Amino acid sequence: FRYRRECRTNGSIPGISSTAANKIHPKIKVNNFVGPAIIRVSCVTKDAPHRPHPHKLVGKSNKSKGGECNFKVDITAENPMVEIKNIGIQCMKRDECQDSLQDRARKGIDPFRTGFGSTERIDLHSVRLAFELLPGFQDDEGRGQLPVVTVSNVISGTKSQLVIFDTCPPCGLTRGGDKMILLTEKLVSSDVLSVVFAEKGRKLEEIWKESVEITSKSVHKQHALLIETPPYSGTTTTGPIKVVVYLQRALTGDEAMDRNRTSNSVPYEYMPEYAPRNKRVSSLLLPDPE
């Protein structure tokens, strides 16, 4: 699942048996029909009766506002299988759902003829794909007859949990600008991430916070980040200043998807630039006072 703001990649829906070593795509088998046709694919709700779902399908050549993807095929008795490649699911936020369904209604995309009702109870985290077979190569050719429709298994969208395994070094100067490496669980390229440095008060509330935005240049092999620490600008004046560091995913506007938008916290210490040296602070971090 991708939100519109995550337009760097549309993703691709894999087949049920797809693996990293052997990638396959969804397939359908057409029975009792031979000839040219259009396979129209759109999102419907997971539970019957399958209503039009506000999420849209996007593909390399798909420019439809109705959110469907159309594939021209030529069905033969020898090859009744159709492979659906290079389509992804673009998620709609709750306040975008009604407009999305209105686009669908204007194009008459309602595979099971269930109509376009309220969006309040639609599950935005799961969909099915509806496959319609429209005889002929023109979209209008199949309008006079009820298309043949089938649905896929349920497809669910989730955001992976953000995890920090370790950081290096564990401390740095309050002026910031020190290089820092974070070892993480696998990062998703479409996520908009930041590294947050935060100081907590007596009641564990955040009394100071600064974020470092992550760019593609910051990520190494999807499991490590290289950043520069931000300067400390809190009110604590004596060192060492204990803070926590965590990853944070940008808000999507969807409550359920945003529940796990932060990672675990790891400790970090800011040291005043001319603080007395101790065993925990490398002499490389602290210049000799003049």
UniProtKB/TrEMBL annotation:
Residues 1-133 form the RHD domain. InterPro entries: Ig-like_fold, Ig_E-set, IPT_dom, NFkB/Dor, p53-like_TF_DNA-bd_sf, RHD_dimer, RHD_DNA_bind_dom, RHD_DNA_bind_dom_sf. GO terms for cellular component: cytoplasm; nucleus. Pfam families: RHD_dimer, RHD_DNA_bind. One of its GO terms (molecular function) is DNA-binding transcription factor activity, RNA polymerase II-specific. GO terms for biological process: canonical NF-kappaB signal transduction; cell development; cellular response to stress; innate immune response; non-canonical NF-kappaB signal transduction; positive regulation of transcription by RNA polymerase II; response to cytokine; system development. PROSITE patterns: REL_2. This is Embryonic polarity protein dorsal. It comes from Operophtera brumata.
